[in-house]
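Budget justification aside, the reviewers requested a transparent look at the raw inputs and outputs of the sequence design task funded under Objective 1. We therefore reproduce one unedited record. The lines immediately below are the structure tokens for a 257-residue chain.
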């Protein structure tokens, strides 16, 4: 039987009620989603069922190859963070500026971190060979960028407002507009992945991915804030979004996915 949005809504409500019951019974605040969160079907099918394994490179010298960030085939350039300047023409859609800081659990800046983003275009389509959404491609927008955090832990991207898109988990399933973020620590194995959302998106209540972050405060930390000071006159709207890597105010990270 094909799942409907109504089926998923009921499961999301049940998961939220179960979490509130755990809190009322003295359970801890769950800043990260449960890996077996039932409404998110594809995660249930592929999430790790065992805890992470610590790699001891002293026992296998070849594993040292995993201990360097992968910056790609060339160094990061000054224009890699502007997704509107990667082609010969102007991309279609609303231009936006996204900026923030990468911080540790104590609020200290994390410097020199490779931050990558990827996203759908303004019509909600990815420039990927396995993309199945029949929305139009934009020949002037690839949807990929990267940058390094500065001495204050700041990052900055210029891009296009992404569109929502269907993802076929259930009947009439639509993802809210979002931008994927990837961060590298001091090793390739320290790669962390998360998603940034936009304020007041009407699709939030219906999306099992963002709703898998059951705690309201933790889920709100995935939503950027409109920041007029980041808006560029006559050019782009501005959004602020900080990424906290650890601690009680950590940003949700797609561990093991």
């Amino acid at each position: 039987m094909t799942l409907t949005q109504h089926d998923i809504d009921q499961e999301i409500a049940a998961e939220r009620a179960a979490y509130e019951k755990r809190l009322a019974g003295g359970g801890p605040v769950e800043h990260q989603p449960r890996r077996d969160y039932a409404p998110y079907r594809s995660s249930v099918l592929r999430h790790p069922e065992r805890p992470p394994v610590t790699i001891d490179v002293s026992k296998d010298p070849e594993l040292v190859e995993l201990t360097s960030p992968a910056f790609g085939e060339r160094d990061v350039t000054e224009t890699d963070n502007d997704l509107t300047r990667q082609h010969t023409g102007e991309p279609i859609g609303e231009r936006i500026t996204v900026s923030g800081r990468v911080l540790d659990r104590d609020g200290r800046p994390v410097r020199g971190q490779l931050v990558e983003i990827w996203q759908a275009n303004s019509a909600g389509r990815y420039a990927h060979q396995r993309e199945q959404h029949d929305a139009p491609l934009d020949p002037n927008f690839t949807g990929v960028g990267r940058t390094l955090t500065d001495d204050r832990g700041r990052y900055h991207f210029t891009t296009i407002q992404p569109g929502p898109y269907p993802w076929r988990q259930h009947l009439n399933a639509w993802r809210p507009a979002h931008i994927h973020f990837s961060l590298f620590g001091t090793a390739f194995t320290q790669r962390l992945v998360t998603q940034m959302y936009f304020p007041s998106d009407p699709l939030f209540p219906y999306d099992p991915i963002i709703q898998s972050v059951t705690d309201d405060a933790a889920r709100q930390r995935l939503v950027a804030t409109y920041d007029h000071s980041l808006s560029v006159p006559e050019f782009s709207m501005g959004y602020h979004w900080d990424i906290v890597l650890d601690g009680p105010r950590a940003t949700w990270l797609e561990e093991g996915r």
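The mean pLDDT is 88. The chain is about 15% helix and 20% strand. Computational costs for records of this kind are itemized in the attached budget.
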